[in-house]
Amino acid sequence: MRVLVDGDRGYIGAVLVPFLQSAGHEVVGLDAGWYDGCDFGPQPTGYVQRTGDIRDVVPEDLDGFDAVIHLAAISNDPIGHLNPGATYSVNAHGAIHMAQMAKAAGVPRFLFSSSCSLYGAGGDAPVAEDGAFHPVTPYGESKVMAEQGLSALADDTFSPSYLRNATAYGSSPRLRADIVVNNLTGTAYTRDEVRLQSDGSPWRPLVHVEDIARAFLAVLEAPRDVVHDQAFNVGRDEDVVQIRTIAEQVAEITGSPVSFAEGAGPDSRNYQVDFTKIRTELPAFAPQWTVPDGVRQIYRDMTTRGVTVSEFEGPRYVRLEKIHELAAARRLDLATLRTIG
Ligand SMILES: NC(=O)c1ccc[n+]([C@@H]2O[C@H](COP(=O)([O-])OP(=O)(O)OC[C@H]3O[C@@H](n4cnc5c(N)ncnc54)[C@H](O)[C@@H]3O)[C@@H](O)[C@H]2O)c1
User: Fold this and answer.
1) Fewest Cβ atoms closer than 10 Å to its Cβ: which of 10, 37, 53, 294?
2) Pocket test for ligand 1, best of 39, 71, 165 (most atoms within 8 A of CB)
């Protein structure tokens, strides 16, 4: 298939693109390029990379594609809080705009990178795809708005699917330090302590970034009737864990002790997720990673590359820090979250 991947130069995109290429698909990327240079090892090659904003795409840009994989977004809560209006503009209206343009261009499939964070403050039972949405942040709300807008476009010619990814972990050529497993492993490496930012009690579903790529590939190649206007929680039941459990695993693997950041209290995002649907309806999705293996992978790659504390906690690996850096250099307008120039 010929596939346009937007957000291809981010954390998930940099793992997904080579994965699609090795499955025989032709990839074209589209990205604003905010994190160009935030490298953790060599970048993917061998495909066309377009630079631009998803909100400016016109149908002609999408002529001749068999599918769009839509990753481009404000990808976490802290950036979402900076300017909720602009976050909705990228994450909800931008996603719906991309889908409208894809549909107008005759692209039959649209895979949306959604998030389990739309379940937000869940109860004690694991939530399945038909569970209620209780987003607790503009980021989570934006994913609900996007899914609802995309679903309204579904018809005989256009099949959107919603991959509600658990929180990712694992190495990527565009590593992020602001997601929990990577963060705890990185503080073990750079500070010799596994420093918790919350009291560790919340439940969180996790999935390796390469297994997210496996899920996108499985949905891309699935029969239309299995994925048409369908949501899938992406992860494994075994990897729904309390954050303190992750911290203990990181401590055991790295030999660094667990500590608590000043003022660490409970976290309002607390949910357990049920992964029965993806396991039963998309058997081609066969996740390969466990959290301890992912911790060992990140720790090994950090050791190889010699990451410093200031690098790990700065703009290279923390998305919010990079956004602030771009805004200070007048390369990004925080009011609109648009590249300047
Ligand atoms: N990483 C996770 O744990 C996780 C979990 C669930 C869902 N997701 C979703 O998966 C997607 C990718 O996440 P990621 O971790 O790779 O994030 P990331 O921040 O590393 O990458 C996002 C990419 O999108 C690009 N982008 C942002 N706004 C754009 C715009 N308006 N036009 C063009 N490009 C734009 C950025 O330049 C960046 O390269 C996001 O939609 C995110 O919400 C991520």
Assistant:
1) 37
2) 71
Which of these CATH numbers, 3.40.50.2000, 3.40.50.720, 3.40.50.261, 2.130.10.10, describes 2-339? Answer: 3.40.50.720
Grouping H, G, I as helix, E, B as strand and the rest as coil, residue 225 is helix
Q: What tens digit of pLDDT does each residue of 194-236 get?
A: 998 878 888 889 999 999 999 999 999 999 999 999 999 999 9
CA distance 9 to 334: 20
Nearest to 10 by CA among 82, 113, 83: 113
Residue 191 has pLDDT above 70, yes or no: yes
The answer, yes or no, to whether any atom of ligand 1 lies below 6 A from the CB of 167, is yes
pLDDT score of 267 more than 70: no
Cα(189) to ligand 1 centroid in Å equals: 25
Torsion over CA: 77, 12, 295, 274 (sign): positive
Residue 264 is predicted with a pLDDT of 67
Instruction: Identify the band that residue 20 occupies on the pLDDT scale cut at 50, 70 and 90.
Output: very high
Cβ of 168 below 6 Å from ligand 1? yes
By alpha-carbon position, which residue is closest to atom 2 of ligand 1? 168
CB of residue 12 inside a 6 A radius of ligand 1: yes
Q: In the beta sheet, which residues pair with residue 120?
A: none
CA angle 273, 277, 279 (to 5 degrees): 100
Sheet (strand 109-115) strand order: 48-51, 26-31, 2-6, 67-70, 109-115, 159-165, 230-234
Ligand 1 centroid distance, CA of 76 (Å) = 8
- Whether 120 lines ligand 1, by a CB cut-off of 6 Å, is no
Residue 265: pLDDT band by 50, 70, 90 thresholds? low
Q: Ligand 1 pocket, 165 CB below 6 A?
A: yes
- Phi/psi for 178 (5° steps) reads -100, 20
Q: Domain segments of the chain: what residues?
A: 2-339
Q: Output the CA 257–ligand 1 centroid distance in Å.
A: 32
